[in-house]
Amino acid sequence: MIEIKHLCKTFPTSEGEFHALKDINLTIEDGAVFGIVGMSGAGKSTLVRCLNLLERPTSGQVVVDGKDLCALSQGELIAQRRSISMIFQQFNLLMQRTCLKNVCFPMEIAGVKEAQARARAMELLETVGLPDKAESYPVQLSGGQRQRVAIARSLASNPKILLCDEATSALDPKTTRDILRLIKDINRRLGITVVVITHEMAVVEEICTHVAILDHGVMMETGRVEEVFSNPKTEAGRRLVYPDGVVIDRLSAARVVRIVFNGGSSYEPLIASLAIDCGVKVNILGADTRNIDGQAFGSMLLGLPQDPQEAAKAVGYLKNQPNVTMEEVRDYHG
User: Fold this and answer.
1) Rounded CA separation 287/302 (Å)
2) What is the pLDDT of residues 46-86, one digit of tens each?
3) pTM above 0.70, yes or no
4) Distance CA 280, CA 273 (A)
5) How far, in Å, CA of 266 to CA of 20, rounded?
6) Helix (H), strand (E) at residue 239
């Protein structure tokens, strides 16, 4: 388990102190795939570097499996870091070494015998699907292949925790999906706790079980992905979950309601069912919904009919739907 307690990080600048992280409190359970998301400058990368003390917090605690990393001696910290691996946006491979020797590198530092290290490195290249690239150099690989080698290298120390700092930001969409599936598979098969730092909500949707939203160094909200996505409680959360807002058209409507999908089947045609079952047609004024593991999350703005009886039928129908909540939008201007 990772426990972050009252963590603050301040950097000196020519204009005074810059508070990059402000009183961060967060618990990450063993085996989770935990996303930390925010816009540029939110403090995400600073936070992840504090998790293994590449950046030492100004105050607060980083507790991993009951040990406060900030209180360890340098030797104890080096030993503890072997259980915490990290992959980066730019891969950070040694260009003069083959893929096999890149994966061997952490084991060399740890004093593992060469034959044992090479055998383990080949196993790890097999794990990431690149056994045929053992003698290739990073310059000969695609971006996705380089990241796979970086992941193999990160697993060489048999870590309990894998930190991913914008690990897919330099990759195209298809390669990103492939790398995310690989990370999710590693989490499932090896039980490694994964912390994903990203500014992309699509990455969180793809693999994370839990998410925390950072904004200007402040932890705004945390929870299970489906909970945060279905009902973000802060303005920072809403900006990330609904980056373009929800309104896709401005149609005149006598009465507007917002329905929020809380995890029902994403294949249930709610608006079509309303028209068929009640004979009531509504205008879709805006929508921002997403499918997470076959469940629907997000919200939709609906313009109800002018006729009060028709509107009442629609409201009654919507209120009785499972996994859907509804509220009236009083400040809507068509």
Assistant:
1) 9
2) 999 999 999 999 999 999 999 999 999 999 998 888 899 99
3) yes
4) 9
5) 39
6) helix 235-241
